[in-house]
Please model this.
Amino acid sequence: MTEIQTLVKDLAQSHGRSRESLLPILQGIIEKDRFISEYAMIEVAKELDISTAEVYGTASFYSFLDTEKRGKYVIRVCKTITCAMKGKNQILLALEDTLKINLGETTPDKKFSILETNCLGWCHKAPAMLINDDVYTELTPEMVRQIIEDYRKREA
Amino acid sequence: MAKIINLTINGIAVSIEEDKTILEAAEKLNIKIPTLCYHKDLCVAGNCRVCVVEQVGSKKLLAACANPVHEGMEIETNSLIVRNSRKHIIELLLSEHNADCTKCYKNGNCELQELSSEYKITNSDFIDLVPSKNYQIDTLSPSLVKDDSKCIRCQRCVRTCSEIQHLSALSVAHKGDHMKISSFFDKPMNEVVCSNCGQCIIHCPTGALVERNYIEEVWDALADPDLHVVVQTAPAVRVGLGEEFDSYGSRVTGKMVSALKRLGFNSVLDTDFTADLTILEEGTELLTRLKKSIVGKENGVQLPMFTSCSPGWIKFIEHSFPEYLDNLSTCKSPQQMFGALAKTYYAQSRGIESDKIVSVSIMPCTAKKYEADRPEMRDSGYKDVDYVLTTRELAIMIKQAGIEFNNLDDEKFDKLMGNSSGAAVIFGSTGGVMEAALRTAYELVTGREVPFKNLEIIPVRGMKGIKEASVLIENPVDDWKFLDGVELKCAIAHGLENAHQLLTDIKAKKAEYHFVEVMACPGGCLGGGGQPIPTSPEIRAKRMKAIYDEDKDKPIRKSHENPEVAQLYEEFLGKPLGEKSHKLLHTHYTPRDRY
Amino acid sequence: MGKKQLRRMDLIFANDEDFRDILKQTLARPNEEIIEDMISSGLKGRGGAGFPTGLKWKLTAEEKAKNKYIICNADEGEPGTFKDREILTQVSYKVLAGMAVCAKITGAKEGFIYLRGEYKFLVPLLNQELDKFHSACSELGLKFNVKIFMGSGAYICGEESALMESMEGRRGEPRNKPPFPTVKGYRGCPTVINNVETLAHTFTIFKYGPRKFRDLGVQDSRGSKLFSVSGDTPTPGIYELELGMTVQDFVDDFGDGDTKAVQVGGASGFLVPRKRFKETAIGYQGKLTGISLPTGGSMMIYNSSRSMYNVLNNYLDFFQEESCGQCTPCRVGCQQLVKGVDAVKRGDKPTAYLDKLLKLTDTMKFTAKCGLGQSVANSFQSIVENFREEMIY
Model:
């Protein structure tokens, strides 16, 4: 069995094989791989006995269920109104500058991806971003550089 | 008894059962409310919003298709706010739609175009969203073309593929402005679990899903004096074609033959001929399987035996139940038997070189296009069937040729492969193959006619999703003595959702049969994906009645009594399941991925 | 600045050590009595739509069904709203107590918290709280189990029927209504779905009785309410205030002295321009004097330095992306609005095109399938009508 097959089987085992388990299973794949590949979706379809098109249709509905390959750390910068007002673009520039990639891209070492997202619910502490599930608020460009530095150290 | 609800629509009182919708109440009053996403074959979606109506006293409009009636409701279907809103919605749909109507294959048969014309959307200045959409056209399937730029996202195809066909080859993907109808990862339709049945096409209100057409190729062949173009017509075409000329529920066999001759086909023949042939081959195959199983007590004899006439069903079972491929009859479909014979038997008999024959078929079906393209369908040494046209494509050609169809005189099929029995005609309906097979098999085994009045085997007829029937075999002739007292159990399913249900039951051993007929489309071929648009339960019922009427009027009602078939065996094939039959008329199947 | 201060309430976040006792007492009371209290308290849904909570519980209780469900809607996605996160962080036990009582009244055995993906970091904490809650339930003899269901980044799943579709493993596309969730909700069964804050308020009513709640606020808008304050304010944060205040009072308290407009109720709410601060009150639509605004509690403050064109653009972008895409008016309407205001701004369309777009938003309001599509009109109309000059070239 491939790694993905094992992962999907385990997820199906723990969440069950009804249609209702689709989201938790897809979320489990994201948690591990940060994206859901075509192959992974086929495995999910087999486990739940639903069509692959439906798995794809459902996954592609949810912003956090990426169907494109992403880095180990997915950075999502909030672009909704208050964050936009409080300097979101500067945060984005700082990220792009530090990681040497553009919005929507992934670093060649597959460690970081930069994305934008809608309201994260931290408007009183704007601007905000998520790195995977962790929240960073009241950001400044300097902080962003430091945060990325910390992640890089952790990876080294 | 359901409670009766009283309401008014445009000031007119109406009473209707409580579970009915505003749309149904309006229908009762002959008030037309426009719809797009609504279809009688499908569950209610309520997403296009074209059917909005005003409920007096409410600030919001209601979707008539999705809202149940309430006591005392006052509905307005044509108030200012309704009209303005409806117009806006049509304008919005047009802004997202490649509205290049004059260049559209569905020009003249498009529900959006009709609505736009009805509401005179002539000066909409909404911004054209099409250029920003990067729409792609998928032309890789031999059966259908998917053009997202014409799609209005009503999801009728998605519901069709899931509710009627249990395939869900199409789903809705993404959200917001990126929302679209998509296959798995938006792959071309020829790479996914599509059965090519074309049900999505006949349920599509616009030109987003259409058949891959071969009209020009056929015109080219007809224009080439060196070629001999033969045409075969499937049984369901003759009860559908009339609709293209505004005549519903009519049988137009003679006019169809006449039109085909005027179009220039060198020989106008009948798929019904090979339907009769199929019965002899398939009936013999069934009896052989029964013999092996009952007398030989052989293991590995696959029962029930499944029919193999419907290429949508074949593709479905290859994907969904590959473990049952040995249960499929090895018989090719009548179309492919015809194709293989056209370039061998017919060519020899007529003294024409096989490579000069172009074989065209007129089918109620889009899956037949795929079937003809299968690599295994070249047993004649050539492509057995060169071009498959749907009923709709034939109608287009008739119109292009300036033929006034309704004024044509009836003509007869040409000889050699043009004669057929009533049993062949009913191949066009769900239950028809079963009935035809029983008429022949029973008589073969017992020497007596099947014990139903006028040969009408009522239990296998009708629109019920899964039908069951059994025939007790008593006092068989000597050759079939082992069948004495055997109750031949049969089942019939139409629509792949029902087929899926039936196979699931068989797999779970909840049901045991000897012989199972499956047709991929609702109602059988008469409701096929190549038939005239629109379709509805009422339209299919009319076609069904016409099919059985045609059977009743035929001088020969049983396949084994078709003299041309006897002649074929005598002059060419030898006997059913013989060597030549085996080479030309039988095939094998390919397991495919289910997911 | 010597600003006038609105009265700060401290009911929701007050730490009630006696929560087990309150739960025990409440569970011991007859259902009718609790429902009566809920109705007379005047509590209405705090997610923004404002349906009377007691009535919702009553309707579900009256349904006969084998299975019923209680769902806590924690898919807080409205721009400018962040109060539910704080409730779940600080006093989730109150929310759970509300669900427990509702379960007892309706006969539900299972409950869910639908938590937005953006708040996934809350899961460990909530699981701890759930453990405590489940042991309290079994101690009190209540068979009721609550699970967390995670969202995955879709604003529309805050719409109750979309949320249920999502829980059933499908795309979060809103359903046709009727039937309403109280009749046919999750898994086709009668379901109570309440916002996080609504459930937290029920605890206040259990503890102090309906009177104390009812005495707060005005007329149709009773009780206190959490407000998420953000934008151009020196004091962003979460505040519990009485319903019924005017926007002027609010601006006096929270503004930076240069407030140009306040967006009440998030992107799907209304923009109130300075000239209407005095006459506009915050509460459910009813008999308040002047204009009253329903709200999920998002208050975004804009000062003179802000371009209302950019604000509108940001909202419309949001809606264009977050629309589920199934119904025509919302899916295509949002795209037309985004492209339309841009074309007017660039001069590619005449300024009169704004009027066509205003009419279009009317159509969206009348015909969209769910609240999202219907409410795009709110911000669009209030911004374009009040700041038309900022929209044109």
Q: What stands out?
A: DSSP finds 18 helices and 18 strands in chain B. The two ends of chain B are 44 Å apart (CA to CA). Chain B touches chain C through 38 residues (CB under 8 Å).
